[in-house]
Specification:
Blueprint: E1 22-26, E2 29-32, E3 37-40, H1 55-66, H2 76-88, E4 94-98, H3 101-116, E5 120-124, H4 156-159, E6 162-165, H5 170-180, E7 184-189, H6 205-216, E8 219-223, H7 235-240, E9 246-249, E10 260-264, H8 266-269, H9 288-303, H10 307-328, E11 334-338, E12 341-345, H11 354-358, H12 362-374, E13 377-378, E14 387-388, H13 395-418
The chain binds pyridoxal-5'-phosphate.
Pyridoxal-5'-phosphate is lined by residues 100-102, 105, 128-130, 190, 194-195, 223, 225-226, 250, 260.
Length: 419
C-alpha cells in the first residue's frame, strides 16, 4: 500500500513517527497490535459517536449480516434509516443513500448543476468535501498538510469550475455573488468547519450564504458529513436554524460502516434517476448491514436523555482542563470547540479561517501529539483535525486525558529546556 495506508493522514506523515496499528476498539479505547491501550479521540474521524463496538450497534450488524449482507434490491432497513434522517432534518424531503461522504457530495453537485443549468461551484478554503476532482482545491484534511494546492491528476479544466473563497468572510462572499452569483450552480460549505481543525461559523456567515443563494437562485449545499447527528440530531442546520437546499451526510449515519447520503428539496431530488434524468447509482448503496448500524446508532442516541448536552458538557470540561494546563505551562494555544468536537491549535490568536489555522505551530503540535500518545491518549495525527468525544468517554477518561496532558506538557518543557 502506498505509504502503508489506505487513507493518507493515517500514515503520521505530518506528526512524524510510525503509525500505530489498531487491533480492536472497545468503548472509548483502542488497542494496538502491541497491546497498548489508548483513549481514542479520533473515533474513526467522527462516525463513532457511541464509541467502539457499542453493544446495540454490534447486535444490529450481526443480526443483519445473518440475513444476508447485500441484495442490490430495495430493503426495509433503508426506509427505516431514511425516516430517521428525515425526521431529524426537516430540509430533507427526499434522499439517496450512497457509500461515502465523497460520493454524497459528488452526486449532490452533479444534481445542483443539472437543476440550475449552471457550471460554477463555490467552496470555502479549508473545507473538505471528499476527494473528487472539482472539490479538492484548497481543501482541508490531509490535503492541508502537503504543499499541493489540489492534486496532480486533477485537470485545470475540472478545478477551473470551482471558485474558492475564504471561510467566514461575508464581504468577499457578497462581492463574489454580486459579480458571478448567476453563474453559480451551488455554494457548498461545512457549516461548522471540521477539516482545518474545528472552526465555527462567524456570526452572520451562514445567514449571508442563505440570503445570497436565495437571491441568485444558487443552491446552498450544507456538507454535514461530520456535523449531522454530531452537534444536534439535525446537525448545524438545526443549531443555526438555516435551511439549505441540499444536505450531504455520512460518518455517524453509518454507525462505523461505509455510508453516505444526500438529500433535500423535493423538486431538486426528483431530478435524480430513475425519477429524473440525472444519473447516479451504486452496487452496494443502501447496504442492509450498513443501514442497520446507522439505525442502531441513531436509535441508541435518541434513547439516551440529554445525550448531546452531556456530550458537550464533557467536552467542555476536557477543553477547560487542557486550557488551564496550557496556560500554566505558558503555551500559546487556542482551542476551538463546537459541542463534542474540538481542536487544539498551537496559535496565539483566534482561529477563524484557513490562514489563521495554517499558522498554528506544526512542531509543537507534533510534540504534543507524540507525548499524549506515549501517555495513552490518541489524538488526530495532524494539527488540522477535529478531536471527537463519544458517549463512551466518561468523566474518568476525561480526567485521565487532562492528567496525561499535564505529563505531556511537563515533558515538552523539559525537552525544550534541555536543547
Ligand atoms: C469525511 C468528510 C467527507 C468525505 O467523506 P468520506 O466518507 O471520507 O468520503 C466529506 N465532507 C466532510 C465534511 C467530511 O468530513
Amino acid at each position: 500500500m502506498p505509504g502503508g495506508v489506505n487513507s493518507p493522514v493515517r500514515a503520521f506523515k505530518s506528526v512524524g513517527g510510525e503509525p500505530v496499528f489498531i487491533e480492536r476498539g472497545e468503548g472509548p479505547y483502542i488497542y494496538d497490535v502491541d497491546g497498548n491501550r489508548y483513549i481514542d479521540y479520533v473515533c474513526s474521524w467522527g462516525p463513532l459517536i457511541l464509541g467502539h463496538a457499542h453493544p446495540d450497534v454490534i447486535k444490529a450488524v450481526r443480526n443483519s449480516a445473518m440475513r444476508g449482507t447485500s441484495f442490490g434490491a430495495p430493503c426495509p432497513v433503508e426506509l427505516e434509516l431514511g425516516e430517521l434522517i428525515k425526521s431529524a432534518f426537516p430540509s430533507i424531503e427526499l434522499l439517496r443513500m450512497v457509500n461515502s461522504g465523497t460520493e454524497a457530495v459528488m452526486s449532490a453537485v452533479r444534481l445542483a448543476r443539472a437543476f440550475t443549468g449552471r457550471k460554477l461551484i463555490v467552496k470555502f478554503q479549508g473545507c473538505y468535501h471528499g476527494h473528487s476532482d472539482f472539490l479538492l482545491g484548497k481543501s482541508g484534511s490531509g490535503i492541508m498538510e502537503g504543499d499541493i494546492p489540489g492534486s496532480p491528476g486533477v485537470p485545470a479544466e475540472a478545478a477551473g469550475l470551482t471558485v474558492t473563497l475564504p471561510y467566514n468572510s461575508v464581504d468577499k462572499f457578497i462581492d463574489f455573488m454580486a459579480e458571478k452569483g448567476e453563474d453559480a450552480a451551488a455554494v457548498i460549505v461545512e457549516p461548522v468547519a471540521g477539516n482545518m481543525g474545528v472552526i465555527p461559523p462567524a456570526r452572520g456567515f451562514l445567514e449571508a450564504l442563505r440570503t445570497e443563494c436565495y437571491l441568485k437562485r444558487t443552491l446552498l449545499i450544507f456538507d454535514e458529513v461530520i456535523t449531522g447527528f454530531r452537534l444536534t440530531p439535525g446537525g448545524a442546520q438545526q443549531l443555526y436554524d438555516i435551511r439549505p437546499d441540499l444536505t450531504c451526510l455520512g460518518k455517524i449515519i453509518g454507525g462505523g460502516l461505509p455510508v453516505g447520503c444526500f438529500g433535500g428539496r423535493r423538486d431538486i431530488m426528483e431530478m435524480l434517476a430513475p425519477q429524473g434524468p440525472v444519473y447516479q447509482a451504486g452496487t452496494l448503496s443502501g447496504n442492509p448491514v450498513a443501514m442497520s448500524a446507522g439505525v442502531a446508532t441513531i436509535k441508541s442516541i435518541s434513547r439516551l436523555h440529554g445525550f448531546y448536552k452531556d456530550l458537550s458538557d464533557k467536552t467542555k470540561s476536557l477543553t477547560d482542563g487542557l486550557l488551564e494546563l496550557f496556560r500554566q505551562y505558558e503555551y500559546n494555544v487556542t482551542i476551538n470547540r463546537a459541542g463534542s468536537m474540538f481542536t487544539v491549535f498551537f496559535a496565539g490568536g483566534p482561529v477563524t479561517d484557513y490562514d489563521s489555522a495554517a499558522v498554528s505551530d506544526k512542531e509543537l503540535y507534533s510534540s504534543f501529539f507524540h507525548e499524549m500518545l506515549e501517555a495513552g491518549v490518541y489524538f488526530g495525527p495532524s494539527r488540522f483535525e477535529a478531536a471527537f468525544v463519544s458517549g463512551a468517554h466518561s468523566g474518568g477518561e476525561i480526567e485521565f486525558t487532562v492528567q496525561a496532558a499535564g505529563i505531556a506538557l511537563e515533558n515538552m518543557r523539559r525537552k525544550e529546556e534541555a536543547e
